[in-house]
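Encode chain A's predicted structure.
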Amino acid sequence: MLKKYTKGFNKVVLFLTMADVFVWGPFFIISALSGIYLSQKLGTGTIEFVGVGTAIYFLTRAITQLPIGYITDKIKKDKDEIFLLIVGVILMGLPYIFYPQISEPLHYFILQFVFGVGVSLNLANWRKLFAMNIDSGREGRQYSFYETIVSLSTVILSTTVGLVANLGDIYFDLVMIGSGILMMAGSTWVVFIFKIHKRKTNHNK
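Encoded structure for chain A:
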């Protein structure tokens, strides 16, 4: 059935797009809500804690992305990129499952570190796979397809998440956990790439 609905599409581009729908769609809205959420958990000083946590996240990205890119460039074919992308997606969603357990700033800082590692594994490998598998002469259409699908899905998710989170604290917890699970589920789309034997990155490296 999957083959029927994906016929005519560049399937690697399609699966990478769907992975980002699951990963970045929920992230865009819960990142906007996380400050409010953490203020309920940590009380006064939340702005400072979020600032430090954001710094930890970006520092982790800065330190880890270069080694990841170097290692994946050295390994033949693309199974390493696909596998590390799967791990990255899982690590990005995992911290949000534990958000309801945050009771002190250290917990948040650790989760930000894990998230930073996940983003590094995601971005370095997703961008490489997308760029190398995109069809020559159709770059504009395929990038536009990606942006359109991710944007529309974010509209739907943002509206839904905002409405549910507004219902009360217990629903806010469920939004965080549910978003984390949804993000981790994005790894399923990446697994599908293994089944595409004619993908460019499986032959051209």
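The chain has one domain: 12-196.
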